[in-house]
Specification:
By secondary structure, this protein is of the alpha/beta class. The protein is built from 18 helices and 18 strands. The structure holds zinc ion. Zinc ion binds next to loops. The site of zinc ion has 5 residues, from loops.
Length: about 475
């Protein structure tokens, strides 16, 4: 190798060295980017943000911690396209207002934004308020007198246990709906434009005791309806027949059921109407008018909501303890009445916060006319003493057996049972009449509404009469045997 060759070789080596260093630097940069991306994903700045939005939206829907709500898609169009980078409180307020507006409470949404201290300088708030005012102007008044009311009993979780041909199977088949059927019914009603309202959206109870009709304001095409569920007591006789055990508040503050599998495993989940509707409204907020949900009609003789809170569970008075109750005491030697009542109250409070209301279904599931005045008074006193401290006061009376305390004509002041119930604070009365789509009556000092039973019997024997609500053949659970005549 001569000198020149050596120089060329040295230059080549130098080039190689430089190229190697450059390659190293590039590799290092790529590595840094990858590491940074991994850290960001792990810290939740990319994927995690979506979860955060869902979590926050969920907590607004359940009425909790509305202060830290991220703005999801629609709120941006609702308010302004410049939400990104806006201060947290702006996003939180817009999201809360959006939920109110989705549930047709435009006044509430406007008031919420106008109460923000920087409303006068915040164009996002002002734009949102403008759009809500416009939407409110397009609402149509729906007369209370035309509102339909449907009701269910406890939902069947396991059809193989409910329809097992024991002595209760025919009754479950006639009077109950399965979870599969219920989910289809609610989805179909939502698709038709039905919106769940409270009976209190239909009337105003004035201070002097008079009751006046009130319109419901909804967008064109939306149809208000009242939902109720009877006998949410999880009676002892239903044990082991494929129904939920009780309602509870889970670790996220959501209302759920417990359900015992055949092998004894107790699960927590959506095993009855209340948590199913709560979940549905979380996904479809516009199914609920102003956040209102259904009316839960309760008896008290075996407690409420699956809790054994009646007097007899406290006193264990020999003459009053039924066979079922004795079996319950035998199976639950550690039963503590006070903690049972405290848990029931916690669930009832959480349900009210979620938009549910309670009604008396009479303490003893009585037909007042058959029972007579004296028994009605005793029954109501038991309701006041053992149920009201848990569920709180209610002015709704949902008669058991679809009974009533008068015929179709107005209740009159010489109707002793009406006068008594009115004196006990009841203003809204419900019977059952599935022969028409709706029946509402306003007296001077009460509202009365007929309800339509949604159950195996009505679905199999009167499917056509339900066609304004849903298509029975689409909802029908194929595991349901032929429904016997009543
Ligand atoms: Zn009942």
């Amino acid at each position: 190798m001569d000198a020149q060759e050596r120089i060329i070789e040295q230059r080549k080596a130098k080039h190689k060295k430089t190229a190697f260093i450059i390659k190293c630097i590039i590799a290092l940069i790529v590595l840094c980017i990858v590491v940074l991306a991994v850290i960001l994903i792990k810290a939740g700045f990319i994927d995690g943000q979506v979860d955060e939005t869902i979590r926050n939206t969920k907590s607004t829907l359940t009425g909790k911690s509305a202060d830290h709500v991220a703005v999801s898609g629609e709120a941006v169009t609702e308010g302004s396209s410049e939400t990104e980078g806006a201060p947290d409180h702006t996003q939180a307020a817009l999201a809360s207002a959006k939920l109110l507006a989705q549930q047709y409470d435009y006044d509430g949404a406007i008031a919420l934004l106008e109460a923000e201290s920087d409303f006068n300088t915040n164009t996002q708030f002002q734009n949102a308020v403008g759009s809500y005012r416009e939407k409110k102007q397009n609402l149509k008044a729906y007369p209370a007198g035309q509102v339909t009311h449907i009701f269910f009993h406890s939902l069947i979780v396991d059809t193989s246990l409910a329809f097992d041909a024991d002595e209760d199977a025919d009754g479950y088949n006639q009077y109950m709906v399965t979870i599969r059927e219920f989910n289809s019914i609610i989805q179909q009603m939502y698709d038709k434009g039905y919106v769940m309202i409270s009976p209190h959206d239909m009337c105003t109870v004035n201070e002097d005791g008079t009751v006046t009709a009130k319109d419901i304001y909804l967008p064109d095409g939306k149809i208000p309806f009242v939902l109720s569920q009877d006998d949410v007591s999880y009676y002892h006789y239903m044990d082991g027949d494929g129904f939920a055990q009780k309602l509870i508040v889970d670790e996220n503050g959501e209302i759920k059921n417990t359900y015992a599998e055949a092998d004894g495993t107790v699960r927590t989940g959506d095993y009855d109407l209340v948590p199913l509707v709560d979940d549905f409204v979380r996904e479809h907020p516009d199914f609920s008018y102003h956040g209102h949900k259904g009316v839960i009609a309760l008896t008290g003789y075996e407690g409420v909501l699956g809790y054994r809170t009646d007097e007899v569970y406290k006193t264990r008075e020999a003459g009053r303890v039924t066979e079922y109750q004795q079996k319950f005491f035998d199976n639950n030697p550690d039963f503590d009445f006070d903690s049972e009542a405290a848990q029931a109250k916690q669930v009832a409070d959480a349900m009210k916060a979620e938009g549910w209301e309670f009604a008396s279904h009479t303490w003893g599931h009585i037909d007042p006319v058959n029972a007579g005045y004296d028994k009605v008074v005793t029954d109501t006193e038991r309701y006041k003493t053992w149920m009201e401290p848990i569920i709180g006061p209610t002015d709704i009376l949902i008669f058991a057996f679809g009974a009533d305390i008068g015929d179709w004509q107005n209740y009159s002041s010489d109707n002793q049972l009406f006068t008594y119930y009115k004196s006990q604070g009841f203003n809204i009365f419900c019977n059952v009449d599935s022969s028409r789509t709706n029946w509402v009556q306003f007296g001077d000092n009460y509202m009365r509404q007929a309800r339509r039973n949604i159950d195996g019997y009505s679905m199999s024997h009167r499917a056509d009469s339900l066609s304004d609500l849903f298509n029975v053949s689409e909802a029908w659970d194929s595991s349901r045997p032929q429904v016997p005549d009543l």
